[in-house]
Amino acid sequence: MYVTRPLSMYRRSPESLSLPPPEGPNSGYLVLHDEESDEVSCCGCIDNRVRDTPFPQNEDLTVGYGSDDDPVAFIPVLDQPLSSNRYHVIHRRGRHKGEASTNSREEDMGTGFFNRRSVRDVNPKPLDPSDIYQQVEILTGDNYYKGSFTAKSVAPDGFPPKFLRTKGWIVTRSTPYDYQLGEAPGLNSSLRASLPGFDFPLSHDCSEAVFVGKWYCPFMFVKEGGVRLKEQMKKCMFYEILLEQRWEKIFDSVNENVEGKNKGAVFVDAFAQREVVFVRGSEAIWVERNVSGDGFMWFKSFDGVGGETSVGLSMKVVERMKWEQERVGWVGGDERQVRVERVEEFGGTGGMWKRFGCYVLVERFVLKRMSVNGSFALLTYDFKHTHQIRSKWE
Predict the structure, then answer these.
(1) How many domains are contained in the chain?
(2) Known InterPro entries for this protein (predicted)?
(3) Tens digit of pLDDT for each residue in 189-228?
(4) Out of 165, 184, 326, 384, which could bridge 4 as a Cys pair, Cβ 3.0 to 4.6 Å?
């Protein structure tokens, strides 16, 4: 899960590049090229060359060397400061579109003329964010090569593909036509701690939602069932993740004693699900240990007429979501349901009440597919905080 920062901030304060990623595991920064970052060439035009790191993620970037060009996306490696210059390099064109450049190893070396050992590139593969052979460190050129780049493998025995390990390649940028990135500040801790308002009528099953956080998630961390990787990249380069809070009713009671006598308390006995996932608005099923070999957890929903929709979330995303919940008191467990038992005393005057409701705090992550034509909620992931219970009387 990534937050955004403007490139101009790093130009003004280069020391900010060394700041660790936002609090929590599996987090990182996306850099937004903004108007203040524009540079003007000698002829008075906006310069489309990227001459230094960090690379922006809200622009289409192309690596060029001589007459060759390779459209790519540079995605910062999770849990690294931007000063590390570590990136996943994702292909934006060709038969490997959507896949990550992969470094070859010593064992992939070939034999050339005069029996000399030579580097033999390996094909790109779908991203595994934990695979160090899919990470490169970008080095900026100096002297003759100033304003250009080369790359080295983060793995000590790795060799980046030729278009990256060649010294002196340049990067140009252009405005993407199929996606836009806005500001994603991450978590608003103070708003989250204040909790949603509780001044709504008992006839409502839940309160109004309050948004307390926003992140972006590159498409490689999400899988849509039945959609090929290159089609997914074309459809949605980045997903939006929102965190919202609301109160949700888990128990209610009506006082059938007209006189209101001998009923100054209510015994609450209710069950609440710890976690609930919805895919395209329908409740989904999943098995905690059903994690595919490529590090994704899958959720499936059914439309009632034989149709099935599935979405896979990288375990990097799932782990971050759960960490974000556990830090404010949510407790996971093997059992999906939690029993809530408590006695609520009526504190009103005269001992008269008509209706009672008990509510639990729910924090929901909303995963939205974004496009230039708008966005829609692909998946929602609810966490019910049974240590945060409130009651209402009427």
Answers:
(1) 2
(2) DUF1262
(3) 999 999 999 999 999 999 999 999 999 999 999 999 999 9
(4) 184
